Amino acid sequence: MQSIVSYPDRGPYGKNSYRGNCSGLLIKDIIQQYKLKSLSDYMVGGGTTEDVCKEMKIPGTFLDLNRGFDMVDMDMPDRPQNIMFHPPYADIILYSDNMYKAADIQRVYGFDPRKNDLSRCPDWGTFIKMLNYCMSKQFAALEKGGRMFTLMGDIKKKGVLYSMLCDIAKPGTLEQVIIKTQHNCWSDRQTYSGNFVPIVHEYLLVTRKDEGLLIPVAWGSHGVLDLTKSHAASWRDSVFAFLQKNGECSLDDLYEAFKESPKIKTNPNWQAKIRQTVQNTRYFTRTLRGHYMAAAAA
């Protein structure tokens, strides 16, 4: 394998009708590259990992919501040596009551798969929370020395990129990120305008469990940076951003806005610094005596 892989032919693995299946040739390359003696998949979907493992005569556990295993509410059934994890890409493809009937699962296994179907999460935040729970739960069950292979993709909606790679929990030792090109996508048949860049790749994240109890983990997080309280932003950029948002303001308004800025701790003359800053006519316009606004873009 190399850091970029491509499989135009998915191979005779898994159900062709089960949308979202990855190429079984990727699974074969993973097994051969890492010399795996076993591989389990607890979101096996249409059965791709299972078919490859049967062909290569290596054991594993192969489960899914559509086979009666709810990863959120049920304990992991064993301690696998290696795990293949190919979760839904949020709501891009709906699984329960689309790829299979929820009523069938309820009748046979006694639970409603729609409850913890990751493809039914109402928003990105909920999806990532459930995804990371499943990621952590599987990694906890992994035997020491084992690997987890997580195949995921990014999503773009209304000009915003939602990145599974950025937001997913990364437990253990980060060993490799492999880029997998996509083929025969629905988006291949679409025409896009403007600056929209179609997504034609996925990521394979390879993480290794070197420790059994104390596991390093990297978590993606989101927050809001207030530039009036930023160390990194300059006085010019902080003041400009404040005026751009609030419109015309007095010097007293600016003093009030920046009175808790960490920058004032190293500048006892910070009010004079604000007055000096707004004198820059390239970025600020005086409207009245002691009143300023952000200058219009040139």
Describe what this molecule looks like in 3D.
- By secondary structure, this protein is an alpha+beta fold.
- The protein has 2 domains: 4-218, Rossmann fold; 227-294.
- It is 26% helix and 18% strand.
- It is built from 8 helices and 12 strands.
- The protein has a 5-stranded mixed sheet with strand order 1-7-8-3-2, with helices on both faces.
- A hairpin with a 2-residue loop joins strand 11 and strand 12 (291-294).
- Helix 1 crosses helix 2.
- The radius of gyration is 26 Å and the shape is elongated.
- The mean pLDDT is 92.
Relevant terms:
Rossmann fold; five-stranded mixed sheet; three-stranded antiparallel sheet; 8 helices; 26% helix
